Protein 1
Amino acid sequence: MEAKQIVKISDEEVFSATGEHLKDVEREVLYNIAKDMTYVDIAFKTGYSSGYVKQIASELWRKLSIALGIKVSKINFQSVLESYQAKKLENTLNDSEPEMILQPVKQEYEEAIKAIETKYEERLKAKEELIKLKDEQIAIYRQEISELLALVKEMAFQSSSHRDVYVSTSETTLDLKDTAREIQQLLEQLSQTHSTKTLLEQAVVAEKAIAQIEQSSDLKERILQAIHIGGVEALGKAIKHPISNMLIAAIRSKKVNYSNEQ
């Protein structure tokens, strides 16, 4: 039993028997005794004389003996208090209605169960939201993949099935080379930041190149001129880059904006 609890129980039992609480000095001495301190140690700690401490302790044992109905001393006060409390609890259980005793315990456990249910309901709700988000993201990704695969298929088909007539002249060749060199630089720049290992990745880079071409009216105009004079196929041959065919296929897929503008 802890020192604070010993002081509290002793004070309650003395008050119940005599109508008076323990004095502050009595509480202080009892607390230190419960901490296994000797009278000399208590006197040194509190500044009282050892004789005074013994006198206070003697009065304490007298009051506790009256309250508990058994002789109490420094040697047995803890065991007497524990036995007294155990017997008191047993008598209380025997005298009280079982339901009244059990009610606080049942309420405590019901509250604990409710807290657990709330905790896991919140987790389950969060999990359901995560699953929903995951399904939405997967659906979006699958749609993007489907569209890109369709684009790759269209590009590959157009690249293999279309041929343009190319009439070579020195002026045409110069225009094609200049335009092709600039497109080649654009593809090299994009290839540094984007992988081009697969057809799907090449299609993505080709689309990004098209997007940048669309934003540059000067480059777009020169591409239109090159296509008009030499043809798309000739422009593709002039571009020295692994995905030039994919870019040309992408240009073919945008005929409305390119080949048919001239």
Note: The chain has eleven helices and no strands.
Protein 2
Amino acid sequence: MSRQFWSVKTHLVPVVTKSLAIASTGLLLCLQSYGVLAQNSSSNSTVSSDAANQSFREVKFNTLPEKQLKSRLPIDRVTAEANAPLNTAMVNGLPGALPGEEPNIPDYSSLDLPDSPLSYGTSQVPYTTSRVLGGTTIPAQANFYRRSGKLYMAFGGNTYNYICSASLIGKSLLLTAAHCVHKYGQGEAGWARKVKFIPAYDNRASNDLEYESTQYLIPNVYLNGTDTCTQDGVVCNNDIALIALPDDNQGQQAGNRNGWFGYGWNGYSYAVPDPASQGVFGNKLFAAITQLGYPGFHDSGLRMQINTAYGAYYAIGNLKNTWLGSAMTGGSSGGPWLVNFGEDAKGADYGSAKLRNVVVGVTSYGNNQQRLGSSWFGQNSEFPNSAYGNRGAGNIGKLVYNACDNSALSDWMLESKGRCR
């Protein structure tokens, strides 16, 4: 079945802690207690763009005008089947998360979330989508928005011709969707030649701090086209990628300047309502999610957008995803899905699984009913381990482990270079 993408052109068309502990529901568990190392199977592995993109590292790339940039957001044509409960046989590790980090510069603004009313599309799944609000002059530069940004990609040629979104989860470690840096199933020929990340991008501000890279890491099953998907490269288990960033033109790492988000796995901060509440809320596994990104149809992709909605766990067979209602469109691909976004108020009780600003997914695909989806962060049939080193479970744990710690990937090894977390 062919893939479809939202095209962003001139005409608009409808369509935890430094000690590396896991925050789990109600307690902290040391990851070392699991002691499960990565397996060495072809499905349970990742692949880097290093060799394919080596010749482009020093090449100067141009950028198309904003209105000519295209999106790579896949379109889901699948009608939802009956939802399956969380497959506990596959998940033997507890939900967990690693925290983010504050920038090493003073915070200069307060968080101000949008208060627009809930709306919904033809899927009738409510959401609130808005421009990012708050800050002193440029809202996207406020903490904690500035940990996210706009991603430009060059597929073919020496010009950035596509857009996505991305977020920092380490000092020089960027998280996005695999389809933002690779064409599903096309092997070594599918890589984007180079990407450019601009944190807190806003067309009203000077965006002189740019980070260009040719070094990405994706699951091997995405590269060779064998991932669990409902369509060819759409609604998949492992549409996740990491990008290694260089220092900026002032010699600083992006995360040290802007801070970075935490990340979670196996349904961190997801819950099934207690029996007394199920008459109102139902008995599905879901989380309250904040989505950030740069959809091309919103302010022409020139300003960051925010969406808040319930994210529902969706599983059928070996497929594991999260769905939510959202008005975001192409260009939002790869943007973070966060639980517990914001900062604590003094004296407030926030309950369980309350680690702040934790990414539990990235925008992976959409449809024409204002509904978007994300690959589930955590254990699945391709990445079954409950821990990869001390980086967490499943797909996200394996990717971060390989980027930061795996000695077999000598061009990465970000932890030894002081560039991981």
Note: Residues 5 and 74 are 5 Å apart (CA to CA).
